[in-house]
Design a protein that fits this description.
By secondary structure, the chain is mostly beta strands. It folds into 3 domains: 3-65, no CATH class; 70-313 and 377-506, Methylamine Dehydrogenase, Chain H, CATH 2.130.10.10; 317-373, no CATH class. 11% of the residues lie in helices and 38% in strands. The strands form 10 sheets. Strands 4-37-36-35 form a 4-stranded antiparallel beta sheet. A 4-stranded antiparallel beta sheet has the order 5-6-7-8, with no helix packed on it. It binds calcium ion (2 copies). One calcium ion is lined by residues 352, 356-357, 359, 361-363, 366.
Length: 514
Amino acid sequence: MNRTNIEHPTSNAEHRSWGHAPCALEFEAWRFSGGWWLVVGVCRAGFGASLPAAVAFLALMLSLEANTATDAGAHNWPRFRGPNGLGVSESRGLPVEFGPMTNLAWRTAVPAGHSSPVVWENHVFLTGYEDTRCLVVCLDRKSGKRLWERTVEATRVERKSKPNDPASSTPAANETGIYALFSGFGLVSFSHDGRERWRRPLDPFTPPHGMGSSPVLAAGRVVVVADQVSDSYIAAFEGASGIPIWKTPRPNLVGGYATPVLHDTDILTGGPMEMVAYAVDTGERRWSIPKMGVMPVASPICVGDRMYVYNDAVPPYEQLTVQMKADRNGDGKISPDEFPDPSFKEAVRAIDRVYGNGDGAVDKEEWDGALKLMRTMNSLVAIDLDGEHSKERWRTTKLLTDTASPLFYGGLLYLVKNGGLLASVDAETGEILRQDRIPGLEGNIFASPVAADGKLFVLNESGKLAVLQCGRDWRVLAVNDLGENCYATPAIADGVIVVRSERDLWAFQNKSMK
Ligand SMILES: [Ca+2]
Ligand SMILES: [Ca+2]
């Protein structure tokens, strides 16, 4: 090839072109955050190019691109749950047993915050908070040394339900720098050497449990989903400047906490009651699939042209009235004013208006009738993605997860549930292959499972990290104990697994392979 350019234009997509190659083919390639490539070949016919040469050249290009993409997949973990939110790294040689004294590469004290660490090349980033200070911390990936810390003052205190906190949203990284969302402020971006590039204050967020969705990078934009009780939206900001590009209103209901994923030039995000695709370029609502979750907590995943989404359960009426004591005056209806969580007022009104008799309150018949109509109870749904022809392939209501997002790895789906329950699921049919308890992993699970090197990593709240051999008959290899509470999803890059506990960031590496 006689010309190779690597450019970093205004977008954070990396662009390469190979022109006037001997076979008279021209190639244009764009590498987007998340490590995927769009390669377009144009045949300049009539210049005597031989077909075998053209095919050989194309094969060479594709193999080069495949290698580059593989490297990106192993080196970086650029957003919540790594490349495009899959929770999967191409890293190899990961340790099975680790802890304070075992296979520890480094351990560094970090500020409070339940957001997850991300990795870009030599840097590990994470967000945190201290009083009203929102913090972005950059560590050296090899040594764990703290390279820099930057502060943005929160402009407000937002209401949060535990374990949500002022630094819950995971930042996103690319070759230009780091992009962080703080619910008490808005967006801020720093370069890799800690220079503030821009800041973009945003209006207060009002999801009932506090902002939990993480920003993602797509085609040079920072995309934010704010699903809340009023003024819900999805918006994109220019990655280079933070300038707003588009903002599309979304339906209001009871809020959402999931992080969107990319598919081609669409950004996909669930709820309320549908999965929606927006054009990354314009924010235009392109298509939707009905009968999805009301209040997404787990994030969807996209595997090729297949999407898997877990639709959370809305509690049945009895749980609201008995456990949450919502019907305070005992008249058999929940009125907006007696709902225990004030920000649910709008949701109660909406359910009565859309599914009820419009008297302003919701009774058992209306509530459970709405649930039945919405068909969202505990369902895992597979969707075949084909633009506006996208359609539901299967759904199963047998599975349960809580906060953790589903994982697709090695052709199988995995779901984890509080109490240490793990299920392997046939990705083609939704059939449960094996569902069992992971011994020693009792308690809540807030981190999402991640996988690499044929292994599955499941972390619970009390800091037990199970390592499992993947497969339909998965088996436990080890249950490690960090001895500190954990809420963040681990990051995996270059043979290292990075785990955030309440006080520390830990990096584990197979010492015998060094
Ligand atoms: Ca009542
Ligand atoms: Ca009513």
